[in-house]
UniProtKB/TrEMBL annotation:
The lineage of its organism: Bacteria, Bacillati, Actinomycetota, Actinomycetes, Micrococcales. This is CAP domain-containing protein. Pfam families: CAP. PANTHER family: SCP DOMAIN-CONTAINING PROTEIN (PTHR31157). Residues 156-262 form the SCP domain. InterPro entries: CAP_dom, CAP_sf, Integrin_alpha_N.
Length: 564
């Protein structure tokens, strides 16, 4: 899976900011796959909302030190804030400063067929959501609801005039595809982040294309829509997409904001997204030209997936950090020492080194970058019912432990990861004794006081969150008391996909711990490791979208607890 790389460049016009900079002329060379959005389930607000196991706020402060048993402190929920976001004011200049760009995004070639219904030994639980507590959500900050009819027609006509000059057939227009593009344009403009909707070709509004898929993005400090197309033409990667003969339908989204480069350096004045698709048979509703403006969607109801802040996680040198990478094996020994086994990049792991002490008394420990500061943290699910964060320090060790939940957590079966596609902060998925599946909001360095019920009938003795089928979304693996490993496919939204749950493994009660690994066997590789009752650590590569034959990567782990 190739990742879109941000680079900085001054556009020829001195004004356009685009999803460009790629010199790839082949869709395959330019292919990049990420996670896409899907409609959120309905949230029901109960009359009373007592969150368990997320209690009322307590007082406390955090200081840097080595974690120790019983030293956890709880933040003041009224003053605690999320991850730091540093906004640097732009330097005074005669025009816009250099801007970030991102390459065009192609769908896979060939595109996957529309999914057929899966079969499994049991039906899926009802995809319900119920909000326990929390008010508000991420507002559509800075958007200006002006008519975008003329801008959309300008983009459509400019693309087809260019194709005609090259002897290519024109692309037609579809309002449903335009809705997909408009939704994403509004989404990224609201978050002030230039990024693609990954796996956009799988969205129902893509109408099942079978002959190519592409997406281009551009932003400007004015409302000159024609210059969006001119910039795309000037970028080899985007130019190749504009004149790709496979495409015969497009949809465009244009979003306006109140931003300007002098005071809001990330809130560009105009955001544009175009989706291209190729169909053997044109979908019903295809027209020769846009019929009018695409009405911006009504802001969704508040969701537990809502981000608490807009930020870009940094990339740091972690060579001195307690945990050096997402592919490391991490364990707690019988004395409470935290051990890190560094991934060597070839599916093997280096010798253990002690990364910290004082981690005894835990039911489970989780490796995560909870505050997305670029350094890996430890989230400890304690036997006394508390949930404690040990925030990592780039130079090594951890800050003083910080209590995120002060009661009831020992009864939950939980996992941690980036379940929500529109939120870079990790979240918690957990089941209770009644089999209800809960999604907990990440409140940063503050108490967790908000959760949503996203499923029921999930009976599990162990959970693990990983992109099992390589579609760009985190999935949930649940080990039942019968030893069956069931797959709950994620869609980037609070509730798992509404479908039957395939059994992808048997005999999994033998494993006392599971850990999702990233980059342990090459860049962007995905795998899962399991520790069995005999102290053997096995490794399954998920690069093919499913479990492979396990490989033994460590032995002699009896008495250790594998961190998730």
């Amino acid at each position: 899976m190739l990742a879109c790389v941000l680079s900085f460049a001054v556009p020829a016009s001195g004004n356009a900011i685009t999803s460009g900079g790629s010199d790839a002329t082949s869709p395959i060379a330019a292919a990049a796959r990420e996670a896409s959005s899907a409609p959120a389930a309905t949230i029901e607000q109960p009359a009373t909302a007592a969150v368990t196991p997320a209690p009322a706020p307590q007082q406390g402060t955090a200081q840097q030190s080595t974690p120790a048993e019983g030293a956890a402190k709880t933040p003041d929920a009224g003053t605690a804030v999320g991850p730091d976001v540093t906004n640097t004011a732009p330097a005074v200049a005669d025009g816009p400063p250099p801007v970030a760009t991102i390459g065009p995004l192609y769908g896979p070639d060939p595109l996957p067929a529309a999914p057929a219904p899966e079969t499994a030994p049991e039906a899926a639980p009802e995809p319900t959501q119920r909000e326990d507590t929390g008010v508000g959500g991420a507002a559509a900050m800075g958007l200006v609801p002006d008519d975008n009819t003329a801008a959309i027609r300008t983009v459509f006509n400019a693309i087809n005039n260019y194709r005609a000059s090259l002897g290519l057939a024109p692309v037609k227009y579809h309002a449903t595809v335009a809705g997909l593009a408009q939704d994403w344009s509004d989404n990224i403009a609201t978050r002030e982040v230039i990024e693609h909707r990954a796996s956009f070709w799988t969205d129902p509004r893509a109408l099942n294309p079978n002959n190519g898929a592409g997406e281009v993005i551009a932003v400007r400090w004015d409302r000159d829509a024609a210059q969006l197309v001119e910039w795309w033409k000037s970028s080899p990667g985007h130019d190749a997409m504009l004149k790709d003969p496979r495409f015969n339908v497009m949809g465009a989204g244009i979003t306006y904001t109140d931003g300007n480069w002098q005071t809001t350096p990330n809130r560009y004045t105009m955001w544009g997204v175009v989706n291209f698709f190729g169909y053997t048979t044109l979908p019903a509703g295809t027209t020769d030209a846009p019929g009018g403006a695409v009405t911006p969607p009504t802001p969704p109801a508040p969701s537990v997936c809502d981000l608490i802040a807009k930020h870009q996680p940094p990339t740091l040198d972690l060579s001195s950090a307690a945990i050096r990478g997402p592919g490391d094996l991490v364990a707690v020994d019988s004395a409470g020492a935290l051990l890190d086994f560094p991934a060597l990049g070839n599916g093997q792991f280096g010798p253990a080194r002690t990364a910290g002490t004082g981690f005894g008394g835990t039911k489970e420990v989780f490796v995560t970058d909870w505050d997305r500061d670029g350094v890996f943290d430890i989230l400890a699910q304690k036997l006394d019912g508390t949930l404690v964060l040990h925030a990592g320090i780039q130079a090594g060790s951890f800050k003083a432990p910080l209590t995120l939940g002060s009661g009831g957590w020992q009864a939950m079966t939980m996992t941690v990861g980036t379940w929500c596609a529109n939120n870079r902060l990790p979240q918690i998925l957990a089941t209770d004794s009644a089999g209800k599946l809960w999604l907990y909001n990440n409140a940063g360095m503050a108490l967790i006081v908000r959760r949503t019920e996203v499923g029921s009938g999930v009976s599990a003795v162990r959970l693990s969150m990983v992109d099992y089928n390589a579609d760009g979304f985190e999935d949930l693996l649940a080990v039942g008391s019968d030893g069956k490993l069931r797959l709950y496919r994620g869609a980037g939204t609070p509730a798992p996909r509404a479908e039957v749950r395939p059994v992808v493994g048997i005999g999994w009660t033998d494993y006392t711990g599971l850990r999702a690994l990233r980059g342990a066997k090459g860049l962007n590789s995905t795998a899962i490791a399991g520790l069995d009752a005999n102290g053997v650590v096995e490794y399954w590569d998920l690069g093919t979208g499913g479990l492979t034959t396990p490989v033994t990567v460590a032995t002699g782990w009896t008495g250790r607890k594998l961190a998730q």
